[in-house]
Specification:
alpha/beta; Aminopeptidase; two-stranded antiparallel sheet; 6 helices; about 35% helix; about 15% strand
């Protein structure tokens, strides 16, 4: 599959978007990093692809999964952001990016970033979702400045807090250790939801799941069971308040 996205079909009123679901490096791109790094969080949101598929199947919603590594291009960045094509990430030098010229940068944007976001735009126009789910995972600690991150789930948002304010107490009531704009703030990094959620006035639920909890099939199944009821309840509450 060469497109920078993977589509999951669904007929419900929600749409799941997972920007960092793949560690694929397309032919013709040499990042200059060891293969082992491509399995780490710097290259992919570990566990997000299987969890995203499971949630879409459970809830009956469509999904769009990013199908290119964040080291090739970070689909959750603005096209003029410094970190769009990272020259280094959490202590790893990405040599093939550090020497990329402006023409190479423009080609990556045109080949991957632009069609990915155009596909999201087309899907939103067709599905007319009442709620967007933005799904990511985070590492328990970063190598650089690596304080432990104790949250099991983080709920991220920028200006639109509608879904977050509903979901956070639901997660807490379910006994889930929940970060309110943690492990990082959606007011700092929220590019895809700023563009497609806030830009369209669509409420969104930005979810970060700690990657060690969803690193295998058992973890994915368990967290699908825990997340799905909160997502569904959030959607119902938003509908009731509309």
């Amino acid at each position: 599959m060469n497109a920078p996205w993977e589509r999951i079909d669904g007929a419900g009123p929600m749409l799941l978007i997972a920007d960092h679901a793949s560690n694929r490096v397309p032919l013709g791109i040499d990042l200059g990093v060891p293969d082992a790094i491509m399995g780490e969080h710097v290259a992919i949101d570990i566990g997000v692809a299987p969890l995203g598929r499971a949630l879409c199947a459970r809830i009956g919603m469509a999904g769009i999964l990013g199908n290119v590594s964040r080291l090739v291009i970070d689909l959750n960045r603005e096209p003029d952001a410094a970190g769009l094509i990272p020259g280094a990430s959490d202590g790893h030098v990405i040599a093939g990016n550090a020497t990329l010229d402006e023409a190479g940068r423009a080609d990556r944007i045109a080949t991957f970033w632009t069609p990915y976001h155009a596909e999201i735009e087309r899907t939103i126009a067709a599905v007319r979702p009442t709620l967007l789910i933005s799904l990511h995972s985070f590492t328990p600690a970063l190598r650089e400045g690596g304080a432990p991150r104790p949250w099991e789930v983080g709920v991220l948002y920028n200006e639109d807090e509608r879904a977050a304010r509903i979901a956070i107490p639901l997660f807490e009531a379910a006994g889930i250790v929940t970060g309110d704009n943690q492990p990082y703030s959606g007011k700092v990094l929220n590019a895809t939801m700023n563009r497609h959620g806030e830009g369209n006035g669509i409420p969104y639920l930005g979810l970060e799941v700690r990657q060690d909890l969803i690193g295998d099939e058992e973890g994915v199944a368990a967290w699908c069971d825990r997340l799905a009821p909160v997502i569904a309840a959030t959607a119902r509450a938003l509908g009731a308040s509309a």
